[in-house]
Amino acid sequence: MRPAWWKEALVYQIYPRSFKDSNGDGIGDLNGILEKLDYLADLGVDVIWLSPIYDSPNDDNGYDIRDYRRIMAEFGTMADFERLL
After folding, report:
1. CB 44 within 8 A of CB 63
2. Structural domains of the chain sorted by starting position, each given as residue range(s) with its CATH number in brackets
3. What is the mean pLDDT of residues 34-62?
4. How far is CA 58 from CA 1, 7, 23, 34, 64, in A?
5. DSSP 2-71
6. Which of 59, 62, 63 is nearest to 73 (CA)?
7. Are 12 and 43 spatial neighbours (Cβ–Cβ below 8 Å)?
8. CB within 8 A of 50, min separation 6: which ones?
């Protein structure tokens, strides 16, 4: 019997705001993560765990989500997220 995949997977958490800025505004974003997927794969990452990216008043670093159906504008768009997914 094989162990559950998650017991041996390499999980890499990304805090998008500080990970990689792709548009020069000083804030990391989803496209910045997309730009680094090959690097993460080279590290052997199996799973990416994203810190909150949903629309938020940002009083609690994005954990105070206002709308689960919208991406925080500074991180990109739903289309950006769908490309990442």
Report:
1. no
2. 8-84 (3.30.750.90)
3. 96
4. 45, 33, 21, 23, 6
5. PPPGGGT--EEEE-HHHH--SSSSSS--HHHHHHTHHHHHHHT--EEEEPP-EE---SSTT-S-SEEEEE
6. 62
7. yes
8. 13, 14, 16, 33
Angle at 12 between CA 9 and CA 18, to 5 degrees: 175
In this prediction the pTM is 0.89
Report the 10 Å Cβ neighbour count for 9: 12
Residue count of the chain: 85
Contact, 33 vs 22, CB < 8 A? no
- What does the alpha-carbon distance between residue 34 and residue 63 come to, in Å, rounded to a whole number? 22
73: left (phi over 0), alpha (psi -120 to 50) or beta: alpha
Work out the pLDDT band at 29, boundaries 50, 70, 90: very high
Whether the CB-CB separation of 72 and 62 falls below 8 Å is answered with: yes
